[in-house]
């Protein structure tokens, strides 16, 4: 089922995404990534997998320190707990589809991070300047950073989420950015 406003962009990552399909089990979106665009930092997910399928161009993906260059019709699946990032160093636009399974709250997390980026409320690494917004977004996206114990990350995120709910931050930010 698709809703309105299924396209959004991020000036930091230099991409635009268009939601193609969404259900509880799966989220599929097309990504239009400009040259020198992409993620600056590594992350991993504990409950979702991602499949990248290149439609046109070249996409660089690093998974667990192994770099792959994907070209037209190539695809790769990133499993739970695999540290990864993607970027475009080809000098040309790249178009690729991303399939997230299960979808969980990934769309809302993307909307939040992309909205904050458009509003100038993130650092150059695309991380929100507000620690509560960061906790809300990474929780939605099931995203964690490598080389930091996951238990510390989960405790910190849970604590910040609880405080954000009590203060009403969670509801305000979701109402503003997640449509």
Short key terms for the protein model shown above:
179 residues, alpha+beta, Jelly Rolls, 2 domains, six-stranded antiparallel β-sheet, three-stranded antiparallel β-sheet, globular
Q: If you had to describe this structure to a student in words, what would you say it looks like?
A:
With 179 residues, this protein is an alpha+beta fold. The protein folds into 2 domains: 7-101, Jelly Rolls; 106-177, no CATH class. Helix content is 28%, strand content 32%. The strands form 3 sheets. It has a 6-stranded antiparallel beta sheet, with helices on one face. A hairpin with a 4-residue loop joins strand 1 and strand 2 (15-22). Helix 1 (106-118) runs antiparallel to helix 2 and helix 2 crosses helix 3. The longest helix has 18 residues, at 150-167. The radius of gyration is 16 Å and the shape is globular. It starts with 6 loop residues before the first strand and ends with a helix.
């Amino acid at each position: 089922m698709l809703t309105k406003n299924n396209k959004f962009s991020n000036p930091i990552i230099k991409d635009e995404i268009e939601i193609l399909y969404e259900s509880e089990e799966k989220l599929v979106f097309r990504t239009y990534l400009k040259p020198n665009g992409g993620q600056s930092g590594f992350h991993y997910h504990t409950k979702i997998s991602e499949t990248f399928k290149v439609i046109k161009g070249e996409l660089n993906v690093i998974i667990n320190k192994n770099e792959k260059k994907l070209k037209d019709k190539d695809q790769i699946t990133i499993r739970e707990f695999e540290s990864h990032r993607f970027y475009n160093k080809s000098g040309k636009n790249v178009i690729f589809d991303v399939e997230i399974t299960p979808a969980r709250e990934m769309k809302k997390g993307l909307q939040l991070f992309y909205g904050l980026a458009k509003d100038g409320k993130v650092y150059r690494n695309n991380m929100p300047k507000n620690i509560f917004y960061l906790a809300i977004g990474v929780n939605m996206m099931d995203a964690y950073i490598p080389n930091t114990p996951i238990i510390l990350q989960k405790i910190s995120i849970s604590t910040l989420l609880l405080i954000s709910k009590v203060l009403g931050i969670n509801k305000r930010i979701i109402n503003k950015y997640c449509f």
